[in-house]
Predict the structure.
Amino acid sequence: MINSILEKKMKITNLAIKFGDKEVLQSINLQVNKGERIAILGQNGSGKTTLLNLINKTLVPTAGKIEDEDFEINNQNRCYIMQHENLPSELKIKEALYVLAQSPENFEKGLGLAEHFDLTKALDKRFSKLSGGEKQKLFLISAIQNNPEYFFLDEITTGLDYNSRDELLSFLSEVFEESQATLFLVTHYIEEALRLCNRFVVVANGRITQDFTRDELVQTNFSLVQFDRLQIGLTEELIDEKTWTYKILKDKMPDILETRYEEITRYERDFVRNLGEIISD
Ligand SMILES: Nc1ncnc2c1ncn2[C@@H]1O[C@H](COP(=O)(O)OP(=O)(O)OP(=O)(O)O)[C@@H](O)[C@H]1O
């Protein structure tokens, strides 16, 4: 079953886009298997959201092509969630799930998901009264109730505190464990990419400069500093001393720079996560 899904491919060739005179993406080449969960990483302004929007057809490229006949992405089978989504402030969660459900059965599924993910008590709360984490959960549930095959998630945990982010990531991990959906996730957070994705691509200088599967990361004994390189999208020669993450870690926790990500302690992990937040803000 999984094999037959993975045989379905999307092929992106020499994709480029300009905004006015500004060439944001110049030559993107990427082959995606259906069912992959891809983290799109890179510095601010590198073109991650633009790439996401080209793949989900919100934007039209100025050159190149996307061959995605095997995928058949449309408004019914995709969900697209961004940072700081909004709904009318007076709408209650239950009403939002109802309005956004594609059928009565899907609405029932939404209510079941709300119960499963501890939102039952909040069903009668108005949108304006929800916390940031509750809002993002609501958007995810309202999308998941419609059984999407494709997820386009753009910095959905930015601005959430540690506990809300942790909860949302557990929620999403559970969703993806039980589904064969394809995910494109734009994020600045190492933790988020590692928890949700099985492939990591970095966009820099209008191109994809790195492309790793999870297995490749594990086989190379990937350390934190290497992941930081990936995330920031610089080549080995340019990196070390020039990144803030590296400078701060070197100063505060020199030992963990070469420690394998899985082996660092919870405290160190939180430190790095907070550092990631400071840097990307
Ligand atoms: N509609 C638009 N019109 C003009 N310029 C745009 C438009 N959309 C994006 N850009 C520019 O394209 C570049 C890439 O933007 P994009 O949002 O894709 O980057 P990003 O990697 O997602 O950034 P961030 O990490 O800050 O969210 C930026 O310089 C941005 O200003």
User: Anything to note?
Assistant: DSSP finds eleven helices and nine strands in the chain. The chain has one domain: 2-73+149-280.
